[in-house]
């Protein structure tokens, strides 16, 4: 399921960004370009962190930016940004931003389950943190078998 959303055109690796807001904006760009989300969704993700704090940081160095399902979302989608240099997200260092765009409360749950499995497996998570997109794609392929 994750393979359906994360592909070469929705995954990016950069050396650094200036701040977490830029990281979310850059991470979401592939979904914007494909028409999966509108600009309002990017703004809603940033506003949500401003309002609610760093709740999107799920594990050391990993954030799952998202906002209210359906608002500014045209279809289910995910995009990934990995950074060589971590960025401070309200007191949390983050190197991996996985944007989640959901149309409702359930359509994305299978993909999210696969993400959880990656996060819980220390060896696989280390591969994700290293930011090698080809190795990350291989992990996603393996998880799909």
From TrEMBL:
One of its GO terms (cellular component) is cytoplasm. The keyword Phosphoprotein applies. GO terms for molecular function: kinase activity. Keywords: Cytoplasm, Kinase, Phosphoprotein, Phosphotransferase system, Transferase, Transport. InterPro entries: Ascorbate-PTS_EIIA_comp, PTrfase/Anion_transptr, PTS_EIIA_type-2_dom. It comes from the Bacteria. Its main location: cytoplasm. Transmembrane segments: none annotated. This is Ascorbate-specific PTS system EIIA component. The lineage of its organism: Bacteria, Bacillati, Bacillota, Bacilli, Lactobacillales.
